[in-house]
From TrEMBL:
One of its GO terms (molecular function) is phosphorelay sensor kinase activity. One of its GO terms (cellular component) is membrane. Pfam families: His_kinase (PF06580). This is Histidine kinase. The keyword Transmembrane applies. It comes from Chryseosolibacter histidini. It comes from the Bacteria. Keywords: Kinase, Membrane, Transferase, Transmembrane, Transmembrane helix. The chain crosses the membrane at residues 14-32, 44-65, 77-98. Residues 163-242 form the Signal transduction histidine kinase internal region domain. InterPro entries: Bact_2-comp_sensor_kinase, HATPase_C_sf, Sig_transdc_His_kin_internal. The keyword NAD does not apply.
């Protein structure tokens, strides 16, 4: 039946385990009663009928719990208080029918006396059956809820990563492409060789951006190659007004970082720090290792706090914000961007944990020095 197939496996298992547990209880209890008190075989039949009723009522209790679960805790408590009484009356009445009614005790007073007698001892088993069943229900609902939360959280993370990577790829904005194409158009008339180099660099930039994935990490050395291509293209446009200096610890070159994590920071400096300044300026990229952390900083000596626009290196206004969210999502809240601005320039920095990675530089101690390279 399709209805049964639609029931989650965990509920089917819970039902079968409860029935198995009560089957053992009824079998042991009935055998001891037959052996010690009532040596008549009819008690086995009575126990079987009660067990069958119990198995049916477990299903009803599960559905009843599911109905009450939609309401607040007070309604649930009141509902289960009424439920345990109804369960006792149902099982008690069936017990009365099997033990007394068929023997000729058919009056209301007989029924009442039987239930009062049950309340002294045997009726406690009926209460326990109801309580244990609803306890199993709530335990399953709790863990099922936890699992659903984890699943929803995982799906949310995936969607968040997809959104971030879409924003990431949009950060190489149309203005950059438009200006680069204009530069290429100018170079074709004066230096075809340089024009070809710019086309190759632009191609490498877009290939790197398109190959980037949300969960993919790249080696720092590849990210730096990407930044170099980006800066070289910008230098075609700005000429000597744009200078670029890298101060990179060789021991960090093989660590893995999120792709295009530095590009919005560099673009921010170019667009709002250096470009509006008549005499241009210098962008300094610093990457150093401090024990188990790696420090990244992009700073410039451009307009800084004198800049007229909000400093965010993307046409969509999400460059730094997106970078900050990506860092926090991957490395934790402490890895968020730290931004400083004054009249002498602008600085954006962050830390990420250093993880030992396969690195050729680890086998070459003599290379544990700082690279100072002018762009």
């Amino acid at each position: 039946m399709k209805f049964i197939d639609d029931i989650p496996r965990i509920w089917k298992r819970a039902y079968l385990l409860l029935c198995f547990w009560y089957a053992i209880n009824y079998a042991v209890g009935t055998f001891l009663e037959w052996k010690l008190e009532t040596p008549n075989t009819y008690i086995f039949w009575n126990a079987l009928y009660l067990f069958e009723a119990l198995c049916i009522l477990i299903v009803a209790i599960f559905f009843y719990c599911n109905l009450l679960f939609k309401y607040n805790i007070y309604i649930q408590v009141a509902g289960h208080t009424a439920g345990v009484m109804m369960y006792f009356l149902t099982m008690g009445t069936l017990s009365y029918y099997l033990e007394d009614y068929v023997e000729g005790f058919v009056y209301f007073e007989n029924w009442k006396d039987h239930l009062v007698q049950l309340l002294k001892w045997e009726g406690l088993h009926f209460h326990d059956q109801y309580i244990i069943t609803i306890a199993v229900y709530y335990v399953i609902r709790y863990f099922d809820g936890q699992q659903k939360q984890e699943h929803e959280k995982s799906e949310l993370n995936i969607k968040n990563r997809e959104m971030q990577i879409s924003l990431l790829k949009s950060q190489i904005n149309p203005h950059f492409l438009f200006n680069t194409l204009n530069s290429i158009n100018t170079l074709i008339g004066s230096s075809k060789e340089q024009a070809r180099r710019v086309i190759t660099q632009l191609s490498d930039i877009f290939r790197y951006a398109l190959d980037s994935h949300g969960d993919q990490m790249v080696r720092l050395i590849h990210e730096l190659d990407f930044i170099d291509n980006y800066i070289r293209i910008q230098q075609v446009r700005f000429g000597d007004r744009l200078k670029f200096v890298k101060q990179v610890d060789f021991s960090c070159l093989s660590v893995y970082i999120p792709p295009m994590i530095l590009q919005p920071l560099v673009e921010n400096s170019v667009k709002y720090g250096i470009a509006p300044k008549d005499d241009g300026g210098t962008i300094v990229l610093t990457i150093k290792r401090f024990n188990n952390m790696i420090f990244f900083e992009v700073k410039d000596d451009g307009l800084g706090s004198k800049a007229k626009k909000v400093m965010d290196g993307s046409s969509s206004g999400v460059g730094l914000k997106n970078t900050d969210q990506r860092l926090k999502s991957i490395f934790g809240a402490s890895s968020g961007l730290r931004i400083r601005s004054n009249e002498w320039g602008y600085s954006v920095s962050f830390f990420i944990p250093f993880e030992e990675a396969l690195s050729e530089t680890q086998a070459e101690p003599e290379n544990q020095q700082t690279l100072n390279k002018a762009g």
